[in-house]
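Appendix B: complex inputs.
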Amino acid sequence: MKKYTYTEKKDTRSGFGAGLSELGKSNPNVVALCADLTGSLKMDAFEKEFPERFFQIGIAEANMMGIAAGLTIGGKIPFTGTFANFSTGRVYDQIRQSIAYSGKNVKICASHAGLTLGEDGATHQILEDIGLMKMLPGMVVINPCDYNQTKAATIAIADYEGPVYLRFGRPAIPNFTPTDQKFEIGKALMINEGTDVTIIATGHLVWKAIEAGEILSTRGISAEIINIHTIKPLDTDAILKSVLKTACVVTAEEHQMNGGLGDSVSQFLSRQRPTPQEFVAVNDSFGESGTPDELMKKYGLDTTDIVAAVEKVIKRK
Amino acid sequence: METNSMTNIDELKKLSTQVRRDILRMVHAVSSGHPGGSLGCVEYFVALYNVVLKHNAVAFTMDGKNEDVFFLSNGHISPVFYSVLAHSGYFPIEELKTFRKLNTRLQGHPTTHEGLPGVRIASGSLGQGMSVGIGAALAKKLNNDQGLIYTLHGDGELQEGQIWEAAMYASANKIDNLIATVDYNGRQIDGDVEKVLSLGNLKLKFEAFGWEVIENNFGNDLSHVISAFEKAKTFVGKGKPIIILMKTEMGMGVDFMMGTHKWHGSAPNDEQLAKALMQLEDTGKDY
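Resulting structure:
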């Protein structure tokens, strides 16, 4: 198992904020909109440096999505910022009609996704957003794994013409990807080459997959670990290549099993190469209040859950 | 830059009659669509595209830089929009016969998806166009572009909450390069707006939201429509968003379609079409 280390834990939302500030300097067409969560989204630096290109919308997310769509008419590249819950479910029809169907170049940037939002509880812990967004024709869906990758993704999506959903989170987690790693939309990253099982993880679950890989290697299991930061378009070549070698797969994500990354992988493999698959995901349940660690454990999204899923799927080969 | 100069009222009246014929024939051909509101907004569209807008029909661009830009928020009145766009040169008038048919660019509700020149946003799901207009108005300000943004909304559409989010934002942020209009015909699918969900005193509501409100009680009179636009323009750049409350008659021009909400979303049959067309002089220019 390839060794991964990190010097500090950082939140992915700060990666977004840092990326946005860099874009402010490098791309005069980038504008940012926020619905009363500037501090939470780490957009304050952009607001301070580029006040004429920052729009405080207030607590009115539907209006924010519409204004963002309108700003593209005139060549602007709007980045909207609010919690994932309010970035998707609350404004689904606005995104569907004014952004996705209209083909507008809006970047929907969503923080506090999933259980790791923690103590605020299930009202804010959206676990359905990936599914909602990937169902929209033409929508790109990205869920980076750490601070550096979120920063790189934020910068990369400005150069892509079309609607993008960028999902990140609240807690400080290991920041382990190289600062100079290129972010290519739709291109999976190989974390570890292995032969016995393929673990495909996204977002906060990538580090847990690395931890699981280390445990598995002590048990004589060689895990191939893939970081899928882009759920749509899915890097099907990388997935197929890996399962042809390992013949079984575990997907891991901080999202409902219904409609998530695992669904996308399963849909692809069932057509191309039926493969035994286990899902590390939330199983048709809302979350609740608690610390991020407690919640990840209770809802079956921990390192040990990945290990257990691997041991189970290997037996099904 | 093409600025339309067809300002002769008689010519515009003739065009209005032709647009009404187009609307009726379009919805009749596919036994679907929304003739009522379309007929009521003919003078608005004819005045907008022939007198008011600075626009370039021949070389349409999505960004509309240095042009005035229009958004139709109540997308179901697409027949009047399409007819006037075609007569303004955005696409061949012949194409009106493809309305609502498979593979058409003239979808039931307007969309950018099929690349129809003249359309810059999809609409149909109501309440979204004012926000889009505000976004485009902000982009114009950032670009130092003197072009104006025009939007049209149904009165029933104002029951959507997003409209009021947008209305609040527009005044708080001095969006004074936007001229919205409400098609104040008092009717919606289920009946009179007053009965379905009363809007109360719309003028006072928009004034309370910080808008400059202009009333036009004769939205089916070209001269009044034009003068309301002219008055609206005098408030551009004065720190407030502008809205015209435009009284119209749903089904205008066809006697049996007026005074009722029943033709909001129903197309005439063969007999009804013949009866309706008899009331609208044939200009010899049917597509």
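DSSP finds ten helices and seven strands in chain B.
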